[in-house]
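debug: dumping io for the single-chain case to check the tokenizer round-trip. Nothing else runs in this session.
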Amino acid sequence: MSHQGTDTLAVELGRFIARSRYDGLPADVADAVKLRVLDVLAAACSGVLAGNHEGPLRLLPEPGACGIWGTPQRRCLRDAVIINSALSHSTYFEDGSRYTGGHPSSALIPAALTLAAARGATGRMLVAAIANGYEVFLRLGRAIYPATVRRGFQSTAILAAPATAAAAATLLDLPAERAAHAVAIACSHGAGLKAALKSADSQPLQVGRSSEGGLLAALYAAQGATGAPDIFETGFLPAFAGPADAVAEARQAARDLGARWSIDETYLKAHGGCRGNHAPVDAAAAAMQGMDPAAVAHIDVNVDTVTRAAAIEPPRNADQAQFSIAFSIAAMLVAGDAAPARYTDAMLADERIRGLMARTSVNADPALDAGYPDRRPALVTVTLADGRVLRHALDHARGEPENPMSRQDIARKFDQVATPIYGADRARILDVVLALDGARPEGTLPSGAVSSGTSLAGAASSGTSPSAAARAGASPAGIAPAGGVAPQDVPSPAALATLLSAAAMPVSSTLNAAHP
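debug: decoded output
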């Protein structure tokens, strides 16, 4: 595979995928991977609580061996990848990248975990696979963004296929040549349009389908199938980015693969809704400091022009509220948070919410464009009924690398949405995720957020209860010391998958109905 006398980008990516394994990962990268697994599971739980699992399960009704997160349902590998990916993206509660305009965790972690569980892979293999997938997503994303959005495409769906192919190729232990073919084949299996963001159903599905395409690409390459050798240079980059320098940018981004890791560039979400809402929400909360929202006469919100262009003001329904800065601020001030559960038609109809929205102006301020996308600032000015004026300016929303969420924050985020679904088992899930590679992240977690009983050590047999699955092959561990977990006690992806699909919350009985 060469292009104009040099190795193609597919070849370079294939070499990286083949040589990059867990033993070569810096400890902080492995730590970041596990925290993003926990974070995307929180996003999936949020989707289940919103009922977003029901449509995809009815669409793909055939039973299989792979679990659907947050439900007792099982589907075949391909369908489980589609559903788990779509579910994780359905409330926009997962991580994201301001340099790609996309969400890597929902694009590739569901596929990687589902495949790892199906193949009996180790936790360390899974961590390495996810790290590799993130690199492909973020490096390619930098080359095509923001041009790809201007051309009408949606970054997450476009990048999901090659990123998932990279993760799957790692789990399949493909040699460099086969891994190169995997990402090359995947390039023609990722598709998504920005216009789909207007639909709460079709946007998550296009991400799930693209992730499935990446999985198929890796499986096909493992059988000996070939991809177009110069597909990045002559197809993917020109089609999705357009500018001639996209190829050069992609090559530049690939030069230090394995020497520099990009996963810490991603942000995590402390709130629901579009990322552009979050700095204004944080700034408004800081300005008000818990004051009664009834005392507000007017709120002025200044944001950069890109953020204002993406906002929908006023929103007509809950789907549009995801992109409404005024609604998100009102939810925070009235309800105390802007969690995904707040984005409902009932909340939008609340007179207190509507009143605050009517008293909120969202303005594009070109002076705030400097430094975009490194900075997405917000300036919030609150005028109270008694004439007092409160102001707060913020350069980075909570969860950005410059204003990070702590491990405790991420654990609490998971705990809040997982408890209604998993009950006490949510502590075991958290415990397993943080011990996937046998090494614990530094620091402690909130009391009660991690099990004080056993750690998982292997896959439980079919039909085993969650608690029994948690005990299978395990020895007492709870929170392990900084030195990590004994090898015999390291949990497996299969054990984690067993817990994730053994939900406590009942699922709609209509899901078992015959296909229409």
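debug: round-trip ok. The first helix runs from residue 9 to 19.
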